[in-house]
Model the fold of this input.
Amino acid sequence: MTFMGMTLAEKILAAKAGKDQVKPGDLVDVTVDVAMSHEACAQIEKPFEAMGAKKVWDPDKVMITLDHWVPASDEMSAAMHRKIRGFVDKWGLEKHFYDIGHHGICHQLLAEKGFCQPGRLVLGTDSHTNTGGALGAFSAGVGPTEMAAIFATGEIWLKVPQNIQVVVNGTLQDRVYSKDIILAAIKELSTSGARYKAVEFRGDGVMSLPMWQRLTLTNMTTEMGAKTGLVAADATTYNYLETLSDPHIDYKAPDRADMEKWRSDDDAIFQETLVIDGADLEPQVAAPFSPDNVHPVSEVEGVHVDQVFIGSCTNARWEDLLIAASYFEGEKVPRGTRVIVSPASTNIYNRALKEGLIETFTEAGAMFLQSTCGPCFGAQGGLLDAGEVCASTSNRNFVGRMGHREGRVYLMSPATAAASAIAGEIVDPRKVNPKKVRLRGPDGATKAHSLNKLLEVAA
Amino acid sequence: MTIRTRFRGRAWTFADSIDTDMIVPGKYLTRLDPESLGEIVLEGARPEFAKEVEPGDIIVAGDNFGCGSSREHAPLGIIGAKVPVVVAENFARIFYRNAINVGLPVIEAPGVTELVSDGDEIIVDIATGTIENIKTGRAVVGTPLPPNMQRIIAAGGLVGIVRQKLGLDPAPSEEEDADVIEL
Ligand code: SF4
Done:
């Protein structure tokens, strides 16, 4: 038998199924490397106990965090949290349980604590689990009953997906980011264009991106209906994994010798290709009520914003906050606009506190929350009334997503959102010059840094 | 293996891209049981649905039904409303898996939105993938539910399958024919 080239997605599924070769459409039984859950864990208990398992197959491979209703917003979410704590205790899942105060948005924790690694199969009870594919993993969302089955057996069936490649050529302009790439891609492919498929991002315009930007790309493959999004492993991937600031207990960085293994073969078959000219790309905005209703920012400039939300698993990493801060520095949010900032994890919050970044936002009149999903899905903290407009760095702008059915959400990059916050209306961030960002050093002295320098160091 | 394969009921039609936020809006996600989810299900798409739906009614939807989040509340709410089967032009991936895993049969039938108008009496056969409109006498043939998913439905969902795998419940033998109940 001669072997055909495989895509990265196919290689990972073949390895997890113990096969030399798989092809789209194959149903495979695969072993799971990381099983993640958040508040949906409250729904795992019932099917898990009904399944009758005597133990969780491998507690070392299970990560649970609270993120959607933190801190608990009502009696029902409090009951849910208590139930999850009980489940964690009963089945010995304490090792990778991140309770409030140590928590973060699940996808950020999977990345920053080193759970997602090249060649791994990562499944989580959240549709944006796709995010982890930026680290060369096959990372996808499942439902709580499936997660119960994984907890019981460590295995699951998957259908090998077809593959789409999104090739980005050229380097992005200043103040244009991966959020703009992914919005442009969703516009072309539509919210159902990648249904059941794996989307791999390729080309020099992708491989030159730092990890914090790659995570935004794979995150929003969910908005195309994709099963997973991936970026092949390269030096950026391994550098990221070798320098994690707060890895999980027992963490081991992966072996660089495997780097070549976790990329698509030259003769791999992609059923569809989308080519994006990165150098030409302008900032993009998804208007209500669909993530594929995407326009260049010039077409929506001038829309008044009642609220700006800088947060979510899409764009609330340290670097996203630095970008936003460069627009808030020394400015005031105008009357008629309110701003909510929430970092993607407790680690990022702590760093923003320590280095004085929180003050940059609060002095401008923004509200700085601890890490939470709350506003992103209309659960708590920052809901919209009828007719109100929110500029958001998150990933969904469906009807009712952030509160009232007639609330209108526009999706954009942190640069566009922050520039719009200060203007009180949607603006092209390239028209506003970012300022230097003040940060407090370890010696306690505050210094102003150029944004691009800070981003280079961070990358 | 016992599985009910034919369903007859009144159709409720829905547009394309009914997302999970329309099926169960975020504010209800702290509800976990099918019954209480059934009281509000599809509120974001047709607010009257949950109040007026009768047991046995069938949902007929357009493209990409269930897109959005991975919330299992969506198929559970549909079960809570006592809808026995959902037909759509096609489904979003996680919704499809969640539905099967909690024991709700779902059938992809391209052309079904043309075939069925709101309120029509229809018959859905999940073994053949056929949807029949009683009023017009016309039918479309969609994709039959694949055998591995029929097995999951017959086991009452993934819970039953895992119990079989762990040796807690007897597994149906390979040769045993599907014991079909038609209604
Ligand atoms: S931030 Fe929003 S999209 Fe991301 S996991 Fe939380 S609710 Fe979901």
In short: Residues A 67-68, 105, 126, 128, 312-313, 373, 376-377, 394-395 surround iron/sulfur cluster (CB under 6 Å). Chain A has two domains: 8-277, 284-458. Chain A has a mean pLDDT of 96.
